[in-house]
């Protein structure tokens, strides 16, 4: 979602008085937030109005929804109590949209994995199990897109964009330098605590679910840290290349989990193939490497610093 002028405001004929420059800390938050309504409306209409939005477009939409939610969670701390409740409901609505987009993307990932040349050689592109599984995923992807489009149109009809703009209108006059920094500090502490809890749970039992939640927590902390760093002089190094590599490794592990879960439906010939056994060994090795990394004190200290 690229930033730009508020086309939504211009179309509705709403004019506003010029505003003073934003304070340097968290200026990116204010500038990006100014385009929330038009950006959400533009992308939502584009996806809802297309029978088959591309995986790339869904990926961008999913990413930008995450960033909006991080920013909205920060701005929520500036709001009066009643408007804070309205922001919380918006976060729930945006979370439901993001989950639906993520489910459709899982089907896309499954189809991409089924198209892998090594898997096709292992299964035989004409095998009944392979063709049936691919057809099922294609049908689920089409159904998922149709349901997503209907849900997005319903959210627009329910005033999702207007609610975003209303919350921002209440927050903007309260965006003083001190309040913005205090809100960001509060949210950093909450997000960093969430990441630390996710690490402890993943260390105790590195299940696919817990590893995926750890990945989400680190991604959230990174978005928040990048948001609150420009213009403040805040050190970006707490989210260093070490944590970035950990996040990327968790992403590869998630892809392997999706792949291996999908292989179980392709029949014993594929499941017992040398390539499938290799992928299972690769997953075990990657999970062991991640678990070993999580046991390192340095990693936990770096994640704890994200809350500062």
Task: Tell me what the structure shows.
- 30% of the residues are buried.
- The radius of gyration is 22 Å and the shape is flat.
- It folds into two domains: 26-175; 177-308.
- The protein is built from 14 helices and no strands.
- The longest helix has 34 residues, at 81-114.
- It starts with 6 loop residues before the first helix and ends with a helix.
- Residues 1-28 and 230-234 have low confidence and may be disordered.
- The protein has 308 residues and is mostly helical.
Summarize the structure.
The protein is mostly helical. The chain has helices at about 5-10, 25-35, 35-50, 55-75, 80-115, 115-125, 130-155, 160-170, 175-205, 210-230, 240-265, 270, 275-295, 295-305.
SSE inventory with pairings:
Blueprint: H1 7-12, H2 27-33, H3 36-48, H4 55-75, H5 81-114, H6 117-123, H7 128-157, H8 160-171, H9 177-204, H10 208-228, H11 241-263, H12 268-271, H13 274-294, H14 297-305
Helix pairs in contact: 3-4, 3-7, 3-8, 4-5, 4-10, 5-7, 5-8, 5-11, 9-10, 9-14, 10-11, 11-13
């Amino acid at each position: 979602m690229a930033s730009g002028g508020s086309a939504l405001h211009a179309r509705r004929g709403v004019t506003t008085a010029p505003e003073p420059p934003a304070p340097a800390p968290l200026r990116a938050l204010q500038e990006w937030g100014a385009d929330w309504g038009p950006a959400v409306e533009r992308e939502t209409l584009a996806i809802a109005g297309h029978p088959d939005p591309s995986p790339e477009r869904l990926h961008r939409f999913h990413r930008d929804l995450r960033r909006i939610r991080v920013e909205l969670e920060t701005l929520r701390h500036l709001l009066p109590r009643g408007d804070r409740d309205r922001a919380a409901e918006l976060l729930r609505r945006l979370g439901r949209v993001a989950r639906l987009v993520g489910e459709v993307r899982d089907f896309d990932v499954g189809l991409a994995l089924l198209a892998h040349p090594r898997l096709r050689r292992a299964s035989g592109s004409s095998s009944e199990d392979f063709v049936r599984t691919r057809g099922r995923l294609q049908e689920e992807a089409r159904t998922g897109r149709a349901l997503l489009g209907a849900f997005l149109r319903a959210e627009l009809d329910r005033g999702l964009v207007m609610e975003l703009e209303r919350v921002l209108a209440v927050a903007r006059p309260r965006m003083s330098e001190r309040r913005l920094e205090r809100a960001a500090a509060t949210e950093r502490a909450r997000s960093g605590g969430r990441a630390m809890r996710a690490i402890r749970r993943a260390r105790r039992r590195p299940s696919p679910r817990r590893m995926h939640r750890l990945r989400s927590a680190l991604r959230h902390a990174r978005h928040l840290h990048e948001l609150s760093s420009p213009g403040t002089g805040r050190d970006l190094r707490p989210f260093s290349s070490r944590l970035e590599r950990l996040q990327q490794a968790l992403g590869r592990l998630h892809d392997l989990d999706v792949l291996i879960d999908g292989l179980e439906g392709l029949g014993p010939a594929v499941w017992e193939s040398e390539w499938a056994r290799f992928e299972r060994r690769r997953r075990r090795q990657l999970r062991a490497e991640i678990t070993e990394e999580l046991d390192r004190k340095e990693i936990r200290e770096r994640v704890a610093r994200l809350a500062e």
